[in-house]
């Protein structure tokens, strides 16, 4: 059996964009390096991986049926139970 996600975070909206917030779910460790799961405000979800300040998010479909492709985002971690804030979309492998 594979281990579950390291962290679990609730997104402020049904998708990510600059300014969106990710708050650790109660009882979940703070966002940190490794694999996690994002729960969006419409109850859709996506697998994610945090590497430094880059959050790579897998594809998902919103409750209304909108397909959201995989993307990488630069995030500012809030620390502890403070939310992380999405800053901008980035291309994997491109210097920031």
Commentary on this structure:
By secondary structure, the protein is mainly β. Helices cover 0% and strands 45% of the residues. The protein has one domain. A hairpin with a 7-residue loop joins strand 8 and strand 9. The N and C termini lie far apart (37 Å).
Query: Oligomer, anyone?
Result: single chain
Specify the overall morphology: globular
Mean pLDDT: 88
Terminal Cα span? 37 Å
Compute the number of structural domains: 1
E-strand count? 9
Q: What does the radius of gyration come to?
A: 12 Å
Q: Could you estimate the helical fraction of the residues in percent? A: under 10%
Strand order across the largest sheet = 1-2-9-8-5-4-3
Task: Output the number of helix runs.
Answer: 0
- In percent terms, what proportion of residues is strand? 35-45%
The succession of helices and strands, N to C, reads EEEEEEEEE
Short structural description:
0% of the residues lie in helices and 45% in strands. It has 96 residues and is mainly beta.
Characteristics of this structure?
globular, 96 residues, mainly beta, two-stranded antiparallel sheet, 0% helix
